[in-house]
Fold this protein.
Amino acid sequence: MIEFSHVSASYDGELAVLHDVSFRIEDGSFVAFVGTNGAGKSTTMRLINGLLKPTEGQVLIDGTPTTELKTSELAQRVGFLFQNPDRQICNNTVREEMMFGFKALGQESPEAEVRADEIMAAFGLNPDDDPFLLNRGTRQLLALASIIVLQPPVIVLDEPTTGLDFRECTKVMEIIRRLHERGTTVVMVCHDMEVVADYAESIIVMSRGKVLAQGPTYDLLRDRALTTEASLVAPQMVALSLALVKRHPQLAGTAVGLANTLTEMERALGLEIAEGGEPR
Amino acid sequence: MIEISNFSFTYRESSEPVVRDINLTIPDGAFVGITGAAGSGKSTLTYAMNGIIPHCYPGDFYGSVKVCGLDTVECDLTEISRHVGSVCQDIDSQMVSSIVEDEMLYGLENFGVSHEEIETRVSEALDAIGIADLRDRTIDSLSGGQKQKVALAAIVALRPDVLVLDEPTAELDPASSVAVYELLRRYAREHGTTVVIVEQKIALLSDYADLLVVIESGRIRFADCPENVLEHADELLSIGVNCPRSATLCHDMKAAGLYAGPICRNVEDAVGMAEQALGLASASPESSRTAADAFAMTGAQATADIAERTAEKGGAR
């Protein structure tokens, strides 16, 4: 479990970028932090992985303050994917990059190599490739793979889809979805509200260094007062549903008035959609 | 006007052309979006428009590219840059100064703009982009989104005829992205500037572009108004380009025979379509926009919102 208790933080010791932030993320959740540039989301991620220490309050990972955990201990509990994979990748081959975490933690073993092989195969990565000659999407996949191979119980992703095209974005997010289904706690910062709505079970809304709300994704994205205060842009189907209810109050509580996803809206508008399909 | 005729380009280290047989005419004042999967040749096409190709990246250049009447092969990069302002995808590679104000001055001084005029240009550009408060900040203290705005302001201050922007909102939140598009559209209309934007955020392009160009494997697959391009939802998906959800909804409704109008470019259009499908009294377009905007955030709202936040926040990270 990740718990923030009255956390304030600053980069220069003067200008506070987080003010009295408290929240709790249960094991096995998939949580997205949303808010504008400068809301404090990335700072929160840096506090979770110990790159930044709070100036006030406590950040607790499984009950232990990050200030009492060694970097290596924290790294085994929390895997961190930087927004820019080039801040992370530092080896000359994909295989070396995959084994780098084990090496840093002194955990090289034949089992580790087998696990790296399996993940490289699953991600479609060639062990002999030079990481710096791969395109941006593949470098992002490699950075993610090199974290997953260490099997941390928590992964923290800072804008995992920035700079990726639609196919790359879907590939990365589906891998993250499968990790979550197998029990990994996923904490993500993401500006793409369609991605947030598609994947995150709950969101934490931040604004001006504070947490405004925490709750189920669609419940909060349908909260007009909240989205206005946090300058959030609702996903298109939520925006459509809310706009229709505003213009035609009799639609409140109907399928149209409650539709959050494309599939739900299409059904509400009379399209026949096969049961059991993935929500879109 | 930008006139690209039979243009193909192969980087010196490549064996295959990255873009090929490109024919594209962009009229003055157009707002053009270029999209496509990673590696499809979008950035290369913009390098041809701002003269980086062939002046910085050597290779085999076929055909011709004319920008504001200048043949980009025959004139030098300085001449081209008097007409074309660019913002790179890798924003850090663009910054040459350590202070925002110096970054703003760099281009103006190099172009020999008079000292009397420089102050006006800098102030106007910083105000237009909504970052007047960042003027004295060091570049390395800015967030990625703030740097993108500084780069944009520095280019706008040069008052180019054409703006070529490679993913200018990649690091911006949705509200700031809408605000940047809104100000670009307003600025372009006021000054008659042509805007060419490479972008993955297809919902923004659908809403703002006059002309949407989709590149696939170095060739132009579609070049038309967004409504017409988005008609090809399945083909777009097959080449790695997603449609906005409102357009996909509309596409599926049309395929099922439940709607017969043009493809929805945005939520506002989708409201009108849904009302038709539900047999609800259709209100005037203006009230439809008001309802949609209430939830999808208009550019005007976003701009006001950003200005307010910037003023309050003083540019915190």
The beta strands of chain A are 2-10, 16-25, 30-34, 56-61, 64-65, 78-81, 154-158, 185-189, 202-207, 210-216. Chain A touches chain B through 55 residues (CB under 8 Å). The first strand of chain A starts at residue 2 and ends at 10. The two ends of chain A are 30 Å apart (CA to CA).
